Amino acid sequence: MSRNSPSQSGVFSSAVDTRVEKFTESISFDHRLYAQDIRGSIAHAEMLADVGVLTQEEALQITTALALIKTEIDNGDFQFDEKLEDVHMNIESALVDRLGDVGRKLHTGRSRNDQVSTDARLWVRDAIDETDRLLKQLQAAFVGRCDADIDIILPAYTHMQRAQPVLAPHYWLAYTEKLQRDRDRLADCRRRVNISSLGTAALAGTTIPIDRENVAQRLGFEGVAANSIDVSSDRDFVLEYAFVLTMIAEHLSVWADEWVLWSSVEFKFIQIPQQFCTGSSIMPQKINPDVCELIRGKSARVIGNLQALLVLIKGLPLAYNRDLQEDKERLFDSVDTVHRSLDLAASIVEGAKLNTESINSRLEDGFLDATTLMEYLIGKGTPQRTAHHQIGSLVATAMEKRCRLAELPLADFMAVNDSLDESVYDVLGVAKAVAAFQSYGSTSPEEVKKQVVRWKEQLELS
């Protein structure tokens, strides 16, 4: 048996089993909340002085000591103790060691329940801001490629079959759009995160005359939580952020998977910078896109973390339950994984090179101009379904003759539609097909250039 746990009161008649100490401790991972915990405690102490619960001198002693503790932790000079359970008790114990009874007054009007909720909200808010910065960095990498790649045409795919030709920047802006939706989701999530929990205490509030708005303002929160029972059990903000991180990981996985394919000999579309590749232990010729593969693979753990968090809260009664301690490792792991992936992705995008010679050598394969030809017929008055059937017949003829649509004689075109003349060749071939696009949001060269300008302005790129 061991001594009493710091969370035990005088009501206990026996000490905590040493195995329980090991099983319940969270300091091994929640020490990452130390800066937020200290920041929240400083705001709480200053508020207690403002309402007269602490003297100004007591508050100054507490805030000064907390600032010194933070400096020690920042510098690696602070020893966290597993027996003190968590980051909150470690810091409070250090404060009491320095100030005695003055330090013991800090916890007035709050509980570890609202304290950990506040710490988590502050940490998530900071993490969201960093996630957004990294997303913007990756967007800038994609947009930064557009001018140099503006004349490069790529085959776009549906069902992994060649479909239509698009400008390379149109591809890059597709990912930029996905990342913007991630940023929009983050901004919306941040609004719900940015609500102060502090002062709701264990679950019912407190009889101490605290000022919750005072603390919220000091911590930069936009408001205070309205129901103390809800606050004690609420981890919606953690799950919502975990979901946004999962969407980001999914988008990164799609991009990474595509570039893994594109870097293969079979595609040979792109060269991934070699500093982000590795070799083989036995095959000397290999240049493996391992970083892209791992970005794709690590999305699985982010998805798994979200699943774990969803299961964690599904059956918990109101209000606080110790189960909620299990959210931190899943949250931290998702943030770390996504942040590292985003940072590496930006460098890969910036340094990759399109293999234009290889791309162009096969660009006319796959009848990428067939849809443009169909729409040319529609423009001449042929109903869409009729035009679709007629162009399908022309593709079959070209396949039989083992040639491209542009290489068919005019007689073949007139055989399926006698309204066709020499002008049909004005829309045939990949370059002409791309030039024919007109709609907003399309791969029209003019539209793509406008979109590039828009994104440069939005991302504040020179």
Question: Can you describe what's shown?
Answer:
With 462 residues, the protein is mainly α. The protein has three domains: 17-108, Fumarase/aspartase (N-terminal domain) (Fumarase C, Chain B, domain 1); 113-361, Fumarase C, Chain A, domain 2, CATH 1.20.200; 369-459, Ribonucleotide Reductase Protein R1, domain 1 (Orthogonal Bundle), CATH 1.10.40. Helix content is 60%, strand content 5%. It contains 19 helices and six strands. It has helices spanning 18-24, 27-30, 34-50, 56-74, 87-99, 101-104, 112-146, 168-193, 212-218, 228-233, 236-262, 290-313, 327-351, 356-361, 370-379, 384-401, 410-416, 430-435, 445-458, and strands at 153-158, 161-167, 195-196, 223-224, 270-271, 353-354. It has a two-stranded antiparallel ribbon with strand order 1-2. A two-stranded parallel ribbon has the order 3-4. Strand 3, helix 9 (212-218) and strand 4 (223-224) form a beta-alpha-beta unit. Helix 3 crosses helix 7 (112-146) and helix 7 (112-146) packs antiparallel against helix 8. The longest helix has 35 residues, at 112-146.
